[in-house]
């Protein structure tokens, strides 16, 4: 089911991109395309879309500006700002995208798993800020996932479910191919 939704989202994205290329994109199309890029965590394309969006559309579509503010928070990994932006009022045009982005299986779970891999111990207040939850809720989620709480210090220790492995270094040819792809992307 998730792959069907992903495929549908890709098709919608492609259609909106084509409308932009054809010069028939409206403020609504730009807004939805920006929302799709953010939902896909494609911050680079969201940034370039915002830069090429006509000023009259930027000025007449406040929701697009709100989406770009959300994108800026995502770019900076400002989790407090992200959750503040996600929790504001959204129109029926972008609300489905925001609900999907806000869903546990998307953003919060990704941040939770990142904290799980990045920390050997973390203050419960910091985890709550990363997850956009109250401290009580964040501790509850962490403990339900097998984390341990040191009540005296207020630190949580993640459960290590898989051993941490080092990345295998890339060969010179792989690094060159990756660099070529980056330059090609930036030039186009």
TrEMBL record:
InterPro entries the record matches: COP9_CSN8, CSN8_PSD8_EIF3K
Domain spans labelled CSN8/PSMD8/EIF3K: 27-163
Source domain of life: Eukaryota
Alphabetical GO biological process terms: COP9 signalosome assembly; protein deneddylation
The protein's name in its UniProt record: CSN8/PSMD8/EIF3K domain-containing protein
PANTHER family, alphabetized: COP9 SIGNALOSOME COMPLEX SUBUNIT 8
Localization annotation: Cytoplasm; Nucleus
Keywords from the UniProt entry: Cytoplasm, Nucleus, Signalosome
Organism name: Nematostella vectensis (Starlet sea anemone)
One of the record's GO cellular component terms: COP9 signalosome
């Amino acid at each position: 089911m998730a792959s069907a939704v992903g495929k549908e989202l890709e098709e919608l994205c492609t259609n909106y991109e084509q409308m932009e290329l054809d010069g028939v994109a409206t403020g609504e199309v730009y807004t939805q395309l920006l929302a799709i890029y953010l939902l896909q965590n494609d911050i680079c394309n969201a940034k370039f879309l915002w830069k090429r969006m006509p000023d009259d559309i930027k000025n007449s579509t406040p929701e697009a500006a709100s989406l770009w503010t959300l994108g800026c928070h995502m770019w900076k990994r400002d989790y407090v700002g992200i959750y503040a932006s996600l929790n504001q009022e959204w129109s029926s045009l972008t609300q489905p995208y925001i609900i999907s982005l806000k869903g546990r299986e998307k953003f919060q779970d990704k941040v939770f798993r990142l904290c799980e891999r990045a920390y050997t111990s973390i203050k419960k207040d910091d985890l709550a800020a990363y997850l956009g939850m109250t401290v009580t809720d964040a501790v509850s989620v962490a403990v339900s996932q097998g984390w341990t709480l040191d009540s005296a210090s207020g630190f949580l220790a993640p459960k290590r479910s898989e051993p941490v492995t080092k990345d295998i270094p890339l060969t010179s040819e792989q690094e060159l191919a990756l660099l070529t792809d980056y330059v090609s992307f930036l030039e186009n």
